[in-house]
Design goal:
There is one protein chain. The chain is of the alpha/beta class. The protein has 12 helices and 10 strands. The chain has a single domain, classed as TIM Barrel, CATH 3.20.20.150. The strands form 2 sheets. An 8-stranded parallel beta sheet has the order 7-6-5-4-3-2-1-10. A two-stranded antiparallel ribbon has the order 8-9.
């Protein structure tokens, strides 16, 4: 395993150039957010073939890699076809760039009239179509446990079981299950149950009062105040990494510290450096 970071966090701590920031932080890999026009808006335009060569050349010259492309798709919106095609196009670009994983959203709507199984059926249908359109490439889709629907363990399992493809896995967000309201001990149990499907990660942490750590809570209770630096939260990230290693995971550990907004701007770079040092010390 190795430490990476989200491009958005590099910018949030004050760097103007993501690659320069990644290198200054002592890292060699980052996750790149890609918009619907296949332009990150930060670094690279990957919408045309000639641009992909430019991206590859710069990454090689800087000795930096992209661990995953991030897509904020919406499979339950008005333009489902457009969302499917967007993810498929990003997957093809990832293949040319030799990036193995595209992080995708789960169902991001929460309608009381639709249960987890219904959302899972819709999500699986979209993912199957993306995989069909990209059947000749070796890029995986990594669905993040994210939001109200996407952190439901039954939903996650139903999507995996329905799609039944080695090219579908998970972006394990180490904090989102806890954010969702699962007690701390159950968070570890859920992570262990899905560890073999993990293809990418977002590493974050949260803090609750002692009496709330082992109780069920409402999704998002106290957030963002509950967001914590990686080294200071309730979740034992050493234990989480041990679970992942035991399951055979050897990929990125992408830092996503959502606590930064709780601190003065002048402290955010120092906190990020401590996050990185902490994860490296565990490894």
């Amino acid at each position: 395993m190795y430490v990476a970071i989200r491009d958005s966090q590099v910018l949030a701590v004050g760097y103007k150039d993501v690659i320069a920031g990644v290198k200054d932080l002592g890292l060699e890999s980052f996750e790149l957010n890609v918009g619907r026009d296949l332009n990150s808006g930060l670094l690279f335009d990957i919408s045309r073939e000639e641009k992909l060569g430019e991206v590859t050349s710069r990454l090689e010259s800087e000795n930096v890699s992209i661990c995953a492309l991030l897509v904020s798709n919406d499979f339950v919106g008005e333009n489902v076809e457009g969302e499917i095609q967007w993810v498929a196009d990003v997957g093809r670009a990832a293949s040319v760039l030799d990036i193995k994983t595209v992080r995708i959203n789960p169902a991001m709507k929460s309608d009381p009239s639709v249960d987890a199984r219904g959302y899972a059926k819709l999500t699986a249908k979209c993912i199957k179509e993306i995989l069909r359109r990209t059947e000749h490439i070796h890029v995986s889709l990594a669905m993040e446990n994210h939001g109200i629907v996407g952190n439901n363990r039954e939903y996650i399992q139903d999507v995996i079981s329905s799609v039944k493809s080695e090219r579908l896995g998970l972006t394990l967000d180490t904090g989102n299950l806890y954010w969702y309201g699962y007690p701390l001990d159950e968070v570890y149990e859920i992570i262990e149950s899905f560890a073999s499907y993990v293809k990418h990660t977002h590493v974050k942490n949260l803090s609750f009062s002692e009496e709330k750590q082992q109780s069920y809570r409402e999704p998002g209770e106290g957030y963002p105040r509950t967001a914590s630096p990686l080294y200071a939260g309730d979740i034992d990230l050493r234990r989480v990494l041990r679970i992942l290693r035991t399951a055979g995971y050897d990929g990125d550990l992408t830092i996503e510290d959502e606590s930064l907004a709780n601190f003065p701007r002048g402290q955010r770079l120092q906190i990020t450096r401590k996050d990185i040092e902490y994860i490296k010390s565990i490894l």
